[in-house]
Task: inverse folding
């Protein structure tokens, strides 16, 4: 199975400041169709996960543009340009290129 | 509106069986995929199973292979996860997720259904 490693696991941030979460895969995520199926999810306290970003950098409908994804190869990043109170929660990356799909451990974002 | 809604969770003894359901609305199971993803209390997300285009293909995590099956009723727009020989470690919130055509893009998620396995 492909191991997905997120860092940091805990991220205290000040309101209005940027935040960055790293996700590294244990092997290339390039699919035979040429796509890279690396996605990011937000799970607010007590809620189901919600997809924010798909295929590295495509933002889902309704997701604020302060969220952005980037990366290539085996290193990927989720950035929040200015953290708001509603961004508190756990963020997961997942690789959907290889079977089985595998999630990162999660990064807990909290307000300082 | 595209939506998923799980049901059927509950408390069961170890070794027992349970079937959870996922009702899809706003799209057809004939053209899409549905995954089951679980989350043990206080833990992260773990993929469990996928059914592709109403059942043309199915796959399972090693942790549930041989114990769980997945099926669908396209006419009812429902997907089922049949869980047999349940273990305490299967205790989790079970989410269905999918709705698109990419196998593991987990486009939308339901609210989840809780499965508790007691010893």
Result:
């Amino acid at each position: 199975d492909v191991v997905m490693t997120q860092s940091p696991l805990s991220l205290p941030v000040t309101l209005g400041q940027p935040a960055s979460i790293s996700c590294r895969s244990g092997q290339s995520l390039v699919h035979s169709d040429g796509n890279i199926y690396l996605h990011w999810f937000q799970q607010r306290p007590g809620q189901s996960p919600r997809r924010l970003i798909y295929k590295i950098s495509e933002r889902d409908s309704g997701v604020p543009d302060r969220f952005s994804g980037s990366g290539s190869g085996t290193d990927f990043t989720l950035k929040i340009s200015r953290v708001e109170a509603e961004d508190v929660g756990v963020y997961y990356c997942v690789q959907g290129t290889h079977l089985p799909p595998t999630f990162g451990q999660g990064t807990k974002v909290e307000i300082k | 509106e595209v939506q998923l809604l799980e049901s059927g969770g509950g408390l069961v003894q170890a070794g027992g069986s349970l079937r959870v359901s996922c009702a899809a609305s706003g799209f057809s199971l004939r053209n899409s995929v549905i995954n089951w993803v679980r989350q043990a209390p206080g833990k992260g997300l773990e993929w469990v199973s996928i059914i592709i285009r109403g059942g043309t293909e199915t796959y399972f995590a090693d942790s549930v292979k041989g114990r769980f099956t997945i099926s669908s009723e396209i006419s009812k727009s429902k997907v089922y996860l049949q869980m047999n020989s349940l273990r305490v470690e299967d205790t989790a919130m079970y989410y269905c997720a999918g709705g698109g055509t990419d196998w593991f893009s987990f486009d939308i998620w339901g609210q989840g259904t809780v499965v508790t396995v007691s010893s």
